[in-house]
Amino acid sequence: MTYRFLRLVLSLLVYVLLRPQVTGLHNIPRRGPVILASNHLSFIDSIVIPLVVPRHVTFIAKAEYWTGRGLKGRVSRWFFTTMGHIPVDREDPRAGQRSLDDALVVLKRGGAFGIYPEGTRSRDGKLHQGHTGVAWLALAGSAPVVPVALRGTDKVQPVGKRIPRPTRGIQVHFGAPIDPSRQLTAGARPAQVRRELTDHVMSSIHKMSGQELAA
């Protein structure tokens, strides 16, 4: 009930203040495991995507959001816990694999998991090469990958800015699902398969986002 109430309130705020243009929602399976792989322009990306998708989407978030002190710390901890996000300690040398293991649990339960293949927010607005963790997750979890392209969220909350500013006209585009099993070919090395699948996902994101590719 708390999650539904928070989602309702935030959805109203997002649609009134930002007026997001959303396309391709029909590409998201109504049930079963699915990975939403998106470009990453702003902190609010992890808020916008779960609010426009008609399913509960889990994201990985840095552990600092759960360890803050005072009123701000309590609000942050309550918010990220209520949204169902998973904390990851970025100082842990195995943080990357631990986050993938946690994501795999979500998929095995038939859930939806959101991931940014670039690994972090783009500071120059360009689309950077994706890390192959998204492919590992798709193959291990037998989950289709729905590419997601965000436009304009960097204007709402640019990198380094703590307070969002209402900017209408952001766009959220969901592409056709990518079946990871179709990437498997006899004799192909696992690393090669993961690289090719990741590049396929990033190519789909690029076509929708229109971003310049990083060198």
TrEMBL record:
Gene Ontology CC: plasma membrane
Pfam families linked to this entry: Acyltransferase
Chain ranges of the Phospholipid/glycerol acyltransferase domain: 34-153
GO process terms (BP): phosphatidic acid biosynthetic process
InterPro entries referenced in this protein's UniProt entry, alphabetically: Plipid/glycerol_acylTrfase (IPR002123)
Gene Ontology molecular function terms on file: 1-acylglycerol-3-phosphate O-acyltransferase activity
Metal-binding recorded as keyword: no
Protein's recorded name: 1-acyl-sn-glycerol-3-phosphate acyltransferase
Lineage: Bacteria, Bacillati, Actinomycetota, Actinomycetes, Micrococcales
